[in-house]
Structures are given as C-alpha cells and as structure tokens.
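== Sequence, structure tokens ==
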Amino acid sequence: MAPPKKSDTEKYIKMSVSFEPRQYDQLLHYCETQERSASWVVRKALAEWLEKHKDDVAP
C-alpha cells in the first residue's frame, strides 16, 4: 500500500541550485558514503545555517 499523500503545506518546494564543480563532487561523495540524498544534505546544511543566523533571517 502506498503512503498517504502529503498536504500542500508538507510538500517540499523544488528549486535549482548551482555549485562549483569541486563542491558538487564533494557533495556527491559525501552522499554516497553516508547513503543520503543530495536534497537531504542540502536541507540539513541550510537548516543548520538558518539556526545559526536566526537573528538575521526573517521568519
């Protein structure tokens, strides 16, 4: 049985991001070694950055 569909407020929003070639290679290598998707790694990194800069970032 398929999992239930996410509501519109729970769905991820897609966007395009450009990386320097070395950053991209490092990201892919990390993803392979940690068995994580690039999306997961980028979301986690962004969440950590936003937490660190929460006083500078509007909600």
